[in-house]
Write a structure and sequence with these properties.
Elements: H1 5-13, E1 21-26, H2 32-41, E2 48-50, E3 53-58, H3 60-69, E4 75-84, H4 88-97, E5 110-116, H5 125-138, E6 149-156, E7 159-165, H6 187-196, E8 205-207, H7 214-224, H8 244-252, E9 264-268, H9 271-284, E10 290-294, E11 309-312, H10 323-340, E12 345-350, H11 353-358, E13 370-372, E14 375-381
Parallel strand pairs: 5-6, 8-9, 8-11, 9-10, 11-12
Antiparallel strand pairs: 1-3, 1-4, 2-3, 4-7, 6-7, 12-14, 13-14
Helix pairs in contact: 2-6, 3-8, 4-5, 6-7
């Protein structure tokens, strides 16, 4: 599991910490507790939960490790400083004196994103953006709307807080899923939902409506000890603080697991989805751990071996299909699971409590709503059937 990386990295990089900064791991609202649990499991002992994510304190190596190991985080932001500004001229002057060179390289273009609050005298985000861009230009930096480095400034109660997005592309882009179907589940969200369901890599996982395979691929990667950021690039690689040798050493650390050889199963009535999921699993390096099949949920058979977790993201009519027709689909899924999967737990994602109820499964009270694809969904969970 990923926890095996914790002592190795902590020992390897402790001597290289030069400063401590506030690091913000953004995550899916409604699943902050799962993100906090993951951060703690990955060795970020001082992690604290806040709305929209988790904060830690650390150095640049912690930033790199968070990007490398955190499955549920959407982005890793590092707050590099702050100052007070009560009007635009003051913002301009203090932004020019900000120690940008400690973090940024003059040969790498940047872009600026500013958010303001009503509690601040500077309330026009566009004017504030222009002042900060001007300050950066005065310090020799290039501004480009498509720049790889995003500087995020927030002005709240007249305090300007400067952060850097160290991830670049969203962390759900692992670099393995080239093919996706309709309404795909993001890898980061799938990872948090697996954790919310109590999955720790020690049991089989089955998705009877697997689509592009996100749930079972994430589960297999966790069981195999594969780090989510193992093959992609990050924005922090283009910062002044980046140490390529230290990063390569960190990325080469092998995660050893003592987990049993759990197997994973994905099926879908759409043959095209099964082909996509199979190809995605092969690219992720877990193709040999997953069996995919082209069949409907009512034809699902219990696999050999111990019980585990059934988790799926069925259509719920908001964007795909007619909701009235889906009640029969959910009822058939529920009947199949109740009759053939005694001892298994179920996690089901839907935007409609009525559809979950149609399964007839003994779901626990639903938790907080979770944003997914422009909708609010809930993760319905059962105990062992």
């Amino acid at each position: 599991m990923l926890t095996d990386l914790r002592p190795t990295c902590a020992t390897l990089y402790a001597a290289r910490m030069t400063h401590s900064a506030e690091i913000f791991m953004t995550g899916t609202p409604g699943l902050e507790s799962a993100l906090l649990a993951e951060a703690q499991a990955n060795g970020f002992a001082d992690a604290g939960r806040i709305p929209g994510g988790v904060t830690i304190n650390g150095g640049w190596e912690d930033v790199w490790r968070a990007n490398l190991t955190m499955r549920g985080a959407t982005r890793i932001l590092v707050r590099i400083g702050s100052f007070m500004a009560f009007h635009l001229a003051q913002l301009d002057k203090r932004a020019k004196k900000f120690p940008w060179a400690e973090t940024l390289r003059t040969d790498i273009p940047v872009r600026v994103e500013v958010a303001t609050s009503r509690k601040s005298k500077i309330y026009h985000a566009g004017a504030a953006t222009q002042r900060i861009e001007g300050a950066l230009k005065a310090n020799g930096y290039q501004i480009n709307a498509d720049a790889p480095i995003a500087i995020k400034a927030r002005i709240d109660d007249n305090r300007v807080t400067i952060s850097i997005d160290t991830s670049g592309e969203s962390l759900h882009k692992r670099g393995h899923k080239e093919a996706v179907g309709k309404a795909p589940m993001r890898e980061t969200l799938a990872a948090l939902m697996l954790r919310e369901c109590g999955y720790d890599g020690r049991e089989p996982v089955l998705d009877p409506m697997c689509g592009s395979g996100t749930f079972v691929i994430e589960a297999a990667e966790i069981a195999a000890g594969l780090l989510p950021g193992r093959t992609r690039h990050f924005a922090f690689e283009q910062l002044a603080s980046f140490d390529a040798d230290a990063w390569n050493d960190m990325r080469r650390v092998r995660v050893h697991t003592d987990l049993p050889a759990a197997h994973f199963h994905g099926s879908d009535r759409d043959a095209g989805a099964v082909r996509m999921a199979t190809a995605n699993a092969e690219r992720a390096g877990v193709g040999d751990l997953i069996t995919f099949a082209n069949l409907s949920a009512t034809d699902l058979q219990r696999p050999d071996g111990p019980p585990g977790l059934i988790i799926c993201n069925p259509p719920y009519g908001g964007r795909i299909g007619n909701q009235k027709m889906l009640y029969g689909v959910y009822a058939g899924l529920g009947e199949t699971l109740k009759s053939r999967f005694a001892g298994w737990r179920v996690g089901l994602v839907t935007s409609e409590a009525g559809l979950a109820k149609a399964t007839g499964l003994p779901f626990k009270p639903k938790g907080a709503p979770i944003p997914h694809g422009g909708l609010k969904v809930w993760l319905f969970q059962s105990g062992k059937l």
